[in-house]
Design a protein that fits this description.
elongated; two-stranded antiparallel sheet
Length: about 80
């Protein structure tokens, strides 16, 4: 979804993903276990950016792209010769 910010005329891309929305808006409600024995506890919101970037590459549109390229590649190779 494209949205125009009221503060600046820039167009920003907002990714609509339930998982990233829940992760980013949880605040400090969820404490996660340490990743190692000497590491501190961390908040779930610390991975907000990573969930948005992950959704960029792993969403239903990638399945459509894979099917499209699977048919488009052989079609163009067949008609070039």
């Amino acid at each position: 979804m494209l949205a125009v910010s009221q503060k600046s005329p820039q167009v920003r891309l907002y990714v609509l993903c339930v998982c990233s929305t829940e992760t980013c808006q949880s605040g400090h409600a969820f404490k996660m276990c340490p990743l190692c024995e000497v590491c501190p506890y961390w908040n779930l919101t610390d991975v907000c950016m990573f969930t948005k970037v992950g959704y960029l590459f792993d969403h239903p549109g990638t399945v459509f792209y894979a099917v499209f390229t699977a048919f488009w590649g052989p079609y163009t190779l067949h008609h070039e010769s």
